[in-house]
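Data availability (excerpt). The following record was deposited with the supplementary files.
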Amino acid sequence: MRNLCKKQRFHYAEHDEPSLDEYVFCAECRDYVFEYCSIHGPLLIVPDDKVPSKSPYPPIVPRAALTIPHVFLHLAPSIIPGAGLGVFTTLSLPSGVRFGPYQGKKSKEVTSSYCWQLYDRNGKRSHVVDADDANSSNWMRYVTCSRHWCEQNLVAFQYRGELYYRTIKIVPRFTELMVFYGGEFANMLHINIRTYNSPAGYAQKFGTH
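Predicted structure:
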């Protein structure tokens, strides 16, 4: 009589498919890959600077400004009139550099122009991250919205419930970082969506590049 107790058991339970939240886009392959691209490698991750318990700066300097990775980036007046501070490269950056995550207060509603909408694993709206308060957010709040595609050098993407920025091309030294906020927020900033993807010469003609 066969001893069934010694027979190896197999479990055929189906594992959950990874959600889109766990995929990243490989610019070289032009496709989404799980966690990282096995051919071209992972993104180059640049973390925020740690905020010291006792800041050497006066209280007027907000927490967000202290988190900027100062070896790679610095704050300076934006090239966009009336935009306030912007984020500029201290060193040249390659394509595929990841910054983040974007920090702020979680909310269900958009209450400022510093909000990013996040989604759950089913693709439904989960919450927004609002970085309006410079003392409860990080330096990414200072990245301005590009007025034309030729100004854009960052793309925002969601990964594992967090919002990150990634460089999409080589960014020369002393260049302002810019990301496109999307149509809804671009309208709030009076950016003309109809001309955003127009030829580069159009942007130069109207002084947006």
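Summary of structural features: Residues 16 and 121 are 11 Å apart (CA to CA).
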